[in-house]
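Before any further analysis, backbone shapes were mapped to integers, which produced the following:

***
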Amino acid sequence: MLYFLLIIATLVTSLISGILSMAGGMILMGVFSLALSIPVAMVLHGVAQTVSNGSRIWLYRQHVSWSILWPYSLGAFCILGLFSWASLVPDTAIVFLVIGTFPFLALLLPTNMQLDVTHPGVAFVCGLVVTGVQMLAGASGPVLDIFYVNSQLTRQQILGTKAITQTLGHIMKCGYYALALDLGLDLPLTVYVGVVIAAMMGNWMGSKIVMRINDKNFRVTGRYVILVIGAVYIGKGVSTLL
């Protein structure tokens, strides 16, 4: 029953990500962290999100803003090197607190701070910050959105470009935490297969829905969703510490 619920959670959250390009991975990491140890949750979440975002790359391949990827990737690999050197593995409370806090931190940023990911320097900083959060908390959607909110990219360009950068981060996360598990799957292979299929199905369904909403609703709806989830996760993190 637990394995079935993990697969259903993957389907539902991939559908959410397929529509909003955010929130799905954040919800899924919370579910996995409740049910599994942190390294196992990180690997399973990484597999699900790699497939989820990877399938979105194909769906929106004609809309990808490629100029963002090179400086972003440089920042991402810098963080991977730092984590590999320090051998960091967070506990459950830290995961929930980090995931839950960042949507609210985004609201505290000065309104005149123009973090536009289409600028190479901002894209590099985005790679540093987002990959750091991804490695520490598993999900980084709310942080990533900070760098896109001031861009002039369309919702299709956002979906395609974020899909590539998120896929890169989740592959790094999978490799890093798989090493912490001595490269063992630690779950039946059927669970990983089920998660992969569910992630692909959720994204396909989401792509059909996203064509029915406009750019304004796309941005505003996602922002409210992640704030609500953030509040729940902060509560969970605090209760775990206590």
Q: What stands out?
A: The chain has a mean pLDDT of 80. The chain has one domain: 2-241.
